Amino acid sequence: MKDDAEPVILDDPGRLKALSHPLRRRILHRLRAHGPATSTTIGEVLGANTGTTSYHLRQLEKYGFIEEIAERSAGRERWWRSAQGPRDLRTPPAEALSPEDRPLLAELLRLGHAEDMELLGRLPESYARDRAWAMLSRGFTHMTEEGLAEFFEAYIRLLRQHGHSREDAPPGARPVNIRLFTLPADED
């Protein structure tokens, strides 16, 4: 992940829609975490039929989130992998979208929140079972808006510096879920 690519702002309604479907998000996560697969193998793991997974794979491909591995595909069996390139995907502010596209952003944020809550629910068990891989930190500080923006960009640089794509990961590397969110503390 050591690229200097600019962040990708998800301000295209098609890309927002592609990521606003629960099965597509599960497919994308599966490919990122476990590597290349066919629609059949993904369907088996995720409990969906091949026709459904094929459709959703094509939608993810259409918007550049995954790609076919042509040299591995043969006949009707198509192999897919997570697209190479930047992984710094950011949502736009709602006002940057047309009023009719704002529900797509709201759904994307809702799905992300549900995924984050599911991960958070698994934290105590993961922490007890595999302390070397389940880490946590809680913080509180005072920052300016500019300081918070600088902190966020430094965090992204750290992810790029220490992270690897699945393809260039060294031996012993595992897929890791990492989340950063900030909330104002004076609104409660």
From TrEMBL:
Span of domain HTH arsR-type: 14-91
Keywords: DNA-binding, Transcription, Transcription regulation
SMART domains in alphabetical order: HTH_ARSR (SM00418)
Domain of life: Bacteria
One Pfam assignment: HTH_20
Transmembrane segments: none
Protein's name according to its UniProt entry: Helix-turn-helix transcriptional regulator
Classification lineage: Bacteria, Bacillati, Actinomycetota, Actinomycetes, Streptosporangiales
